[in-house]
Amino acid sequence: MLVILAIGPALLFPTPSRLLVLMVVPVLAYSAWVTYGTVIPRTPLNVSLGSLLIMVMISTTTTFDILFSLDKISGVILGVLVFWAVVRWTTSPAKLATITAVFLLAGAVLSVLGLLGTHHGQYEHPDSWASHWRVVIPPIRGAENGFNPNAVAGCLVLFLPLQIALFFFSPRWWERWSQVEARGNWGSRVQGALLVVSSVTLVAMQSRGALLGVGLVSAVALLAFSRGARILAALALGVIILGSVMLGPRAIARDVFDWAGPAMEQTVTIRLSIWSRAIVGIQDFPWAGMGMNVARTVLPVTPPRIETAHAHNHLLQAALDLGIPGLIAYMSIWAVVAVLLARVWLRSRQIEYRVAAAGLAAGLTAHFIFGMTDAIPLGSKVGVLFWLTLALTVSLYQIAIGGKKRLR
Predict the structure, then answer these.
(1) pLDDT per residue over 57-70, tens digit each?
(2) CA torsion sign, 213 to 47 to 401 to 339?
(3) Among residues 407, 408, 392, which one has the least CA distance to residue 353?
(4) Shortest CA distance to 92 belongs to which of 395, 407, 354, 357?
């Protein structure tokens, strides 16, 4: 894992010469074969990941310029290597505690970087307070003008639900997993501080998709565990149905758009235009896709004429990049992860494991909902956080139900 961390910067900011660091991968593979008897760890995601990597390789034959796709290709390679390294290393509850702590700290780092490095001006109305937000960190390649607030929020939702779940329902998880007794309440205080920073950053990003995802997940959680919430939800549903009958759905939709303002109507119009063109692109390149990162050169025809970095839908984006087989591989990752978390929730006897599974499931669900109206394309620099989430999920599954030996 230390070697992969060392070569990580070259894969995050790749050039043909920097990718020579991949020559270390065969050495790692041989070392793993000698030590463990397998080149890669056995995990429930291996079939999906193998299929995805095959489609990434095939996509190099369809891209108009391999150098243009290089960032995203190397990003996927880095993400898969991080996933396998973390899963192989996490062989005990103590190591699971360490990886979970690293995961939560990564969310805190993302929150701080988001507050200091996000550029809101190009995404908000000139009179909005967010339009006056100033970037205070040095520019990074690929984000020279600052981070996209939607991308920051879309990644942040992976962390926030787990932070909430562990803080409120299992604050002593570190001690239980690591078997190290903590003095005082420093663990809870740190978790509380991380939760506050993440919450403030999520609100500051003003991402409708991320807030919608967190809101829906929170509503489902309340409905599942609170009788009072179910009663209020039933009353609210009754009011909505009654209002729809009395006013009509068109009048309600018109009032909602009037309340949201012209920006909301413009956003919906642009999204629909992008999605329709993305579907046409998928029909033109159904089997191998256009090649990674190529869609941004095809979709900028939406009004106004600005560069569209992605399809604003992660499923459509996966199909554009890797074709329908790549989309199937990508969706299978989500399906397998859902099954693993459900098994931990249903089979584990330790409340800490169940709480962690619920938090991870909520975060991934919020991220999936966010991805239906926006997207963090496969291979993006911040996308490594998604792979870290998958690694933590599989590690939790292997430790929680005692399957580490069987899967390794």
Answers:
(1) 999 999 988 999 99
(2) positive
(3) 392
(4) 395
